[in-house]
Structures are given as structure tokens and as C-alpha cells.
Specification:
By secondary structure, the chain is α+β, with helices and mostly antiparallel strands. It has twelve helices and 14 strands.
Length: about 300
């Protein structure tokens, strides 16, 4: 049963410099924008901040920009706004697919992309598609900014590479024109907004003839201490014919070599491995069908 909120100081900041300086001076400061995960952690007694730092008004966190083919997503932009963005749907459909089913409508209206990543849940819906898109994160500190591949941002369950810094932007490089992506997840009640038992994101690029897998980026969620790229599965797929056999082989490799699941209240490790193979097989079969249909036009 959820308890009452613990005592804390509330502080709202309007500039990035002010936010970083405040974080440097004070003790347990929890920056927040949407607060959907934080509120639950507060009521459960899992989070005990001295200060809640409201960063919603920071302009660096609230914009979506394009530059040199890259797209920058402000960390405080809501999940629903991004899911409904024509730009995201057209250029990064695999991300739009995931954000569309990230929580209920009420949660999606409030939750932010940066918050979903900073919570560092192994089951974070936004992480696998962003990993499959080779996304990077920009971290701001008093000494300046630093960019990291998203895979290096996650250090473990609820642990990130942040060091008295703020995640300000998520940076996504241009996606290859013939590339196609798909996100899929399994929830405990088969409801789209459920917390994932297993999630899979795949982004693939065929060769010019449409016969072989030229590039493959596969990411898994909820089957390890952090969302992860399935590097062994990618290696098994690249260069192989676009066929049922290559799909089955890569999916089996993802389940057996890439996934690192545990057993918990929602599923056993064995079930999670089996579902990695099932979901990835379905995703790659769907993408292969799209590639074949595209080549026939």
C-alpha cells in the first residue's frame, strides 16, 4: 500500500546554470519534470530527497530540433507529444511505436522521455528503440557538456552515468533511408501499457538488391540489468540472406547469448528467454516482409 509523501523542499529553477549550481551546493537533490516514476518512489519510501528540483521550465530541456540530419529531443518533452510528432513517426517510427504504448494516456501526458531514461529501469520502453537507433545523450554539468552513447548511460538497475549533471537532450543520428524498424513488447496482461516482461526493438537495413541483411541493430529490454544491444544476434544476421533461417538463427542467438534475464514476480528467466526468441522472430519476419514487398514495387 502506498504511503504518504516524506517531507522535502521544493525548488523551481528557470535556467540551466541555476539548476546545476543548486545541485552542486545541496545534498540529495532530485531533479524532475514529469515525476511519474518519482511520485511512486516517494510514496513507497524508495526515494528520500532533501530537495525536489523542478526543471520543467528549462528551455534546453523542452525543444525538438533538427541539425545536420540529426534530431535533438529535449529531455523534458512529454512522451505523448513525441509519440504524436509527425517528425518522429516518419523518420523514427520504431521510437514512435514504443512511445505510443508507454503507459496509460494520463501517464504519457505527464511522463518525459528524459525521465524514462534517467529512471534506468531495465524495462524502460523508450530505451530499446533508442538503442537500436544509435542514440546518444547529452549531459550538462558546471564544467560543460559531455555526450555518451545511450548504451554507456545505463550502469545497472536504476543507476546511470550522471554525476551532478542533468540529462538535457537525446540525440539521434540520421536513419539510413532504406532502414525499417519495429518495436514489440510483452506485458503481464497483454495490455500495451503494461510494464514489459520482455521488449524488443529491431532496426534493419537491406542491401541494394533487397536480398541480404546489410545492417542490423537489435535491442532488448527487461532481460538484463539494463536495456542492451543484442550484439551477438546482430553479428549472426548481418550479411546473411533475408530468409526464415537467418531470422530463426539470430533470434535463437539473442535468447541464448545476449539476454541475461532473472526470475522475478512477473516471469521466470526461462520464460523471458523463450519470449525474446518469439518476439524477435516475429519482428524480423515482419520487417523481412516489408523489405520483400518494397523490392517488388
Amino acid at each position: 500500500m502506498l504511503g504518504t509523501l516524506p517531507p522535502f523542499e521544493y525548488r523551481k529553477v528557470i535556467s540551466l546554470r541555476e539548476a546545476l549550481a543548486f545541485m552542486e551546493k545541496r545534498g540529495k537533490v532530485y531533479p524532475y519534470a514529469g515525476g511519474t516514476d518519482l511520485l511512486v518512489a516517494l510514496k513507497n519510501g524508495e526515494a528520500k530527497p532533501q530537495v525536489l528540483l523542478d526543471v520543467k521550465a528549462l528551455p534546453e530541456l523542452g525543444s525538438v530540433r533538427q541539425q545536420n540530419g540529426w534530431i535533438s529531443l529535449g529531455a523534458a518533452v512529454s512522451v505523448r507529444a513525441l509519440a504524436r510528432s509527425a517528425l518522429i513517426r516518419e523518420r523514427y517510427s520504431v521510437l514512435a511505436q514504443a512511445l505510443k504504448i508507454l503507459g496509460s494516456t494520463q501517464i504519457a501526458n505527464r511522463a518525459t522521455l528524459g525521465g524514462n531514461l534517467c529512471n534506468a529501469s531495465p524495462a524502460a520502453d523508450s530505451a530499446p528503440p533508442l538503442l537500436a537507433l544509435d542514440a546518444r545523450v547529452r549531459l550538462a554539468g558546471l564544467k560543460g557538456n559531455r555526450d555518451l552513447p545511450l548504451a554507456e548511460f545505463f550502469l545497472g538497475p536504476n543507476k546511470t552515468a550522471l554525476k551532478r549533471e542533468l540529462l538535457t537532450e537525446i540525440l539521434i543520428p540520421p536513419a539510413p533511408a532504406p532502414g525499417r524498424g519495429l518495436f514489440s513488447k510483452l506485458g503481464s496482461r497483454s495490455a500495451p501499457e503494461d510494464i514489459a516482461i520482455v521488449s524488443v526493438a529491431a532496426f534493419v537495413v537491406p542491401d541494394r538488391a533487397g536480398n541480404r541483411w546489410q545492417e542490423a541493430r537489435i535491442a532488448l529490454g527487461a532481460v538484463g540489468p539494463a536495456p542492451m544491444r543484442a550484439r551477438y544476434a546482430e553479428e549472426a544476421l548481418v550479411g546473411q540472406p533475408i530468409s526464415g533461417q537467418s531470422i530463426r538463427d539470430a533470434s535463437r542467438v539473442a535468447a541464448e547469448k545476449d539476454a541475461q534475464p532473472i526470475s522475478d514476480i512477473r516471469a521466470s528467466a526461462g520464460y523471458r528467454r523463450a519470449m525474446v526468441e518469439v518476439l524477435l522472430t516475429r519482428a524480423l519476419e515482419h520487417l523481412a516482409s516489408e523489405i520483400v514487398q518494397g523490392a517488388a514495387r
